[in-house]
UniProtKB/TrEMBL annotation:
This is CheW-like domain-containing protein. The lineage of its organism: Bacteria, Bacillati, Bacillota, Bacilli, Bacillales. PROSITE patterns: CHEW. It comes from the Bacteria. GO terms for cellular component: cytosol. Keywords: Plasmid.
Length: 136
């Protein structure tokens, strides 16, 4: 069994394991731009005295910049003792998913995991994929 937080980008549902999630916050803080960074990094934000790079999941998934407003959510996470925040449109809920309902899917040589449970199908985002973006 795996616990997955579901969220939305452009009205499309995605999920992420809660194993590395610290908290979910409203996007009501100033995001400071960092020059010469990867286009998916919107800048950094101070949350609870932690400086976190903000990863724009809309840019990462759809190559389209997300609006910065208070309606958006920040999913704070920690991997390998580094903090980060995922900028998403909205969060949904935490659900239990049987690992047998998570399937590998390959398209154009890109491997991803897809959750197929209770007539609900969505892509599972791997937090570890963002480790290289968190060097700070």
């Amino acid at each position: 069994m795996m616990k997955i937080l579901t969220f939305y980008i452009n009205n499309k549902k995605y999920g992420v394991s809660i194993d590395n999630i610290i908290t979910i916050e409203k996007n009501d803080r100033k995001i400071t731009d960092i020059p010469k960074t990867n286009s998916i990094i919107r800048g950094v934000v101070n949350v609870r005295s932690r400086i976190c790079p903000v990863i724009d999941l809309r840019m990462y998934l759809e190559n389209e910049e997300n609006e910065l407003n208070e309606d958006k959510k920040l999913i704070l996470f920690d991997i390998n003792e580094k903090n980060g925040a995922l900028l998403v449109d909205n969060t949904d809920n935490i659900m239990d998913v049987d690992t047998e309902n998570i399937e590998e899917f390959e398209s154009d040589r890109v491997k991803t995991k897809v959750v197929n449970q209770d007539n609900d199908v969505f892509v599972l985002i791997e937090i570890n994929d963002f480790d290289d973006f968190l060097e700070h």
